[in-house]
Design goal:
Layout lengths: L1 E4 L9 E5 L3 H12 L3 E6 L5 H5 L2 H18 L1 H4 L21 H25 L3 E4 L1 E6 L2 E5 L5 E5 L2 E4 L3 E3 L12 E2 L14 E4 L3 H12 L4 E4 L11 H13 L3 E3 L4 E7 L6 E6 L4 E4 L1 E4 L3 E3 L32 E3 L10 H15 L13 E4 L4 E6 L2 H6 L5 E6 L4 H5 L6 E6 L6 E8 L2 H4 L1 H8 L4 H6 L9 H8 L8
Parallel strand pairs: 1-7, 2-3, 2-8, 3-4, 8-19, 10-17, 11-12, 11-17, 12-13
Antiparallel strand pairs: 5-6, 6-7, 9-18, 14-15, 15-16, 20-21, 21-24, 22-23, 23-24
């Protein structure tokens, strides 16, 4: 039985239904409320979505623990010892150890706390939150299925779909939550794997491979390409690959996994991963990091006339409109950039557009992204591959981080700063930072790209000495050309 609930509103009021409570959904809700709309958010799993509950917040919390282990390994060169005179993490009688049960309990606790904080914020702002699964009937009606089987129809003036994505699964490697895992299931482990096989060397695979390796787990990373992180800056990916090898990680390039199965019983139980060439890799656990699929099936989009791509992603324009008037979409379900920051921006733009506020269409060229390996890789603007593909004129300056005084003090050996800029006008077109906390260092370059600053503009700004940002100023100075009138 379907009950119909019509929102009461005057001529000035607008009702928005948002399907999905991740970054695209909850940020949109806040904007819509500030602009005076009545807002309903429908979420089936928990506010914050995958970004908070199973993806960004949990993974980066785990990686933060791994970072501490990496820092501790440099203790000896910094002159730090334990009270018994031994160096931490160097194989003495008092080595560092990780209790994964405690780590993952903290991870899950932080994720739930963040989710609850979002719910509290939305409710305080007057957003109505409904727990359930939304189905879009049209731009003016969404039907919500509750856990008890009941259905409620909500009439509205516009709909925002922000349903995110879930890990892609291989038919011959179905996750069991015990030994064959997706990245959403890693946080249920209480004991470190004896040997972890990671299938997929993209961002997710590289991040988890690096994190578990830093936690002391032997890791095998299977890549279908020649190198890890094949879609990233080649110099940056080479640094990460070098670090992985130096830390003892086994890399298996140009190999595609076709199956994974659990074999044996009791103490002999393990996983076998079969590669396309017939080789079989063995380990205690396998992480399948082979991409994601959008959560767009079975929620009424195609029946409502919303166009989807062949991959199932919702087609949107730069102000988040779909092909149906009054239906908008944001986040990973759109196949734009799978970043929480992009999802949030798409959601904000959608609400500004539907509610008649000033709208600045999204500019993907100015999106800053970060890969949380050790060291991190932060990028913004045009990549070198993109510049070459469009046959743009550009120049490059690059400076190894090891030359930076602050980096020497902190024991940093790997990393660099790189800028792409127009050879004549000097306008900064993009940049790459490879360093610990590169996510904190990319912002000056992001400002330069956003506001079309020149390398001279960046070079003339003061930096602290000693500081890692000093390398950004220096690499900009390297791009100066004397101009004669």
């Amino acid at each position: 039985m379907v009950t119909v609930e019509t929102q009461s509103r005057d001529l000035q009021a607008t009702t928005i239904v948002i399907v999905g409570g991740g970054p695209g959904g909850y940020e949109a809700a806040l904007v819509a409320r500030r602009l005076g709309a009545e807002v309903v958010v429908v979420e089936r799993r928990g506010l914050g979505g995958a970004a908070v509950l199973t993806d960004v917040v949990p993974s980066k919390t785990l990686i933060a623990t791994a970072d501490w282990m990496t820092i501790a390994e440099r203790a000896s060169e910094l002159g730090i010892t334990l009270s018994n005179g031994e160096f931490p993490g160097q194989g003495g009688t008092a080595p560092l150890a990780v209790d994964l049960g405690v780590v993952n309990a903290r991870v899950r606790g932080l994720a739930q706390a963040q989710s609850q904080d979002i719910r509290t914020r939305l409710e305080r702002e007057g957003v109505r939150v409904i727990d359930g699964t939304g189905r879009v009937e049209s731009s003016s009606r969404v039907v919500v299925a509750g856990a008890d089987g009941s259905e409620t129809a909500i009439d509205c003036d516009a709909v925002l779909v922000a349903t995110g994505a879930t890990p892609r699964e291989l038919d011959a490697a179905k996750p069991d939550g015990r030994r064959i895992l997706t990245w959403t299931q890693l946080y249920d482990l209480d004991v470190l794997p004896e040997k972890l096989i990671v299938v997929g060397s993209g961002v997710t695979g590289a991040e988890f491979a690096g994190a578990y390796n830093a936690l002391g787990v032997p890791v095998v990373l299977v890549s279908s390409r020649d190198h890890v992180l094949p879609n990233e800056d080649a110099d940056a990916a080479a640094v990460i690959e070098e670090v992985f090898r130096d830390r003892g990680m086994e890399l298996v390039p140009r190999s595609r996994a076709v199956a994974a199965q659990v074999v044996g019983e009791g103490d002999d139980e393990h996983v076998e991963v079969t590669l396309a060439d017939g080789r079989v890799l063995t380990g205690s656990h396998v992480l399948m990091a082979v991409g994601s699929i959008p959560n767009t099936a079975g929620i009424g989009l195609e029946e409502a006339g919303v166009a989807l791509s062949e991959s199932g992603h919702i087609q949107v324009d730069r102000v988040s409109r779909t092909t149906v008037r009054g239906i908008y979409a944001a986040g990973d379900c759109t196949g734009t950039f799978p970043l929480a920051s992009v999802a949030a921006q798409q959601g904000r733009i959608a609400m500004s557009h539907v509610l008649g506020d000033t709208v600045v269409p999204i500019r993907l060229r100015t999106v800053a992204a970060n890969i949380f390996t050790t060291p991190e890789i932060a990028t913004v603007g045009y990549s070198e591959v993109a510049l070459q593909a469009q046959k743009s004129k550009y120049s490059v300056t690059m400076l190894p981080l090891a030359r930076n005084a602050r980096a020497k003090m902190l024991g940093m050996r790997h990393g660099f700063v790189k800028l792409f800029f127009h050879p004549d006008a000097g306008v900064v077109l993009g940049g790459v930072v490879v360093a610990p906390r590169a996510s904190e260092l990319i912002f000056p370059i992001t400002l330069a790209v956003q506001h079309r600053l020149t390398v001279d503009d960046v070079a003339e700004a003061f930096t602290i000495y000693p500081s890692l940002t000093g390398s950004i100023g220096e690499v900009a100075r390297m791009g100066h050309h004397r101009r004669l009138d």
